[in-house]
Amino acid sequence: MQTNFTLAQLADPDVAESEKILRACVHCGFCNATCPTYVLDGNELDSSRGRIYLIKEMLEHDRPATAEVVRHIDRCLSCLACMTTCPSGVHYMHLVDNARVHIEDTFRRPLAERFIRAVLAAVMPYPQRFRLALMVAWFGKPFAPIANTIGLKRVAAMLRLAPWRRPHRPLEPQTFPVSGKRQGRVALLAGCVNDVLAPDINAAAIRLLNRLGIEVVIPEGASCCGSLVHHMGREHEALAQACAMIDAFDALEGIDAIVITASGCGTTIKDYGYMLRGDTDYAPRAARISGLAKDISEYLSGLPLKAESDAAKNRAPLVVAYHSACSLQHGQQITRQPKELLAKLGFAVKDVPDGHLCCGSAGTYNILQPDIATRLRERKVETIERLRPDVIAAGNLGCITQIAAGTELPAVHTVELIDWATGGPCPPALRGSTEQVS
Could you tell me if 370 and 280 lie in one domain? Predict the structure, then answer.
């Protein structure tokens, strides 16, 4: 793609990077076929290629973002399916992230929208605040239909996504030692949302790693990776959270990897080297932390796993519909390891048709764009249910929460099934339902 940036513009490293990405695009449109919003409505401006044109015009002419540009960029899920499809290697992720920062700096959103975004940014990355917010949301859940009827769709979406069960306390910084000979030592990203909403995920990961002789450390000062605010264009907040995370992990000695059970966080942490490339103090450490980051399935694929529990001894293997989170398959290019691990341990694994299309979760997307997110969830659930599985497995809590809201099928994290099959307890979501296949 031909560009016409001035030398003064290219002196800005983010503009220079955007220009490089834009020049790689050859207008082929292959990306459109895998863009979820384009597949839904066929609007070129709601496609990867259409957004690239909008971003080019905005950045090249150094214009403040317009309402039209904001509308179509906001509708992008950052699922990165376009990057997997692109034959020219266009790094759309960095391009749209730069565009979102430009939008945040130059566009004044309506008051209600500014408020909801400010609330999300001030609450979700902080586990104690998020826990308190969920307690409040519990009382408001019955009023979600009313909120939706009077036009408060985003408030209604937040209330619907809040669980009926009491939120849990986040994991405290601590070390989980092994009982026998130590075979390795890893840091585990507890995250800002995982333990409050679904503590069984990290608990399963810790049990499993300990049984394999891996000591697990929850570092002091590690909370949100910065992903949530990063994708809202709040650059300064995202970098501050990333630096705090780097400080926390960098203080640990002798770790073999940073293990992550939320693939959305993993994609961001693996990009720290790029995000902080211009920071002389943090750039080398950021690159090191990015190099240590491993998705839990990625790390487990190098360890000797053996089926030991009743999960692998059912007369009929448990049928697992594996939903490949976008941040895992497109963001990290991890596609085979989770399925291979599950199949190795005795599960009957089925791929979800159109598995490259997003479920509509995408961080805060299912709150900020509830109508599109609901349509994507309905499409995803329909394809999953046609497989007639016993359980849905995914590697990201956002996907699990989003999909579970639209189906009666149990949805669990992949590591919960792996833990169960190798000697751990049955995942809570499956208790009582496994009798049908035993």
Answer: no
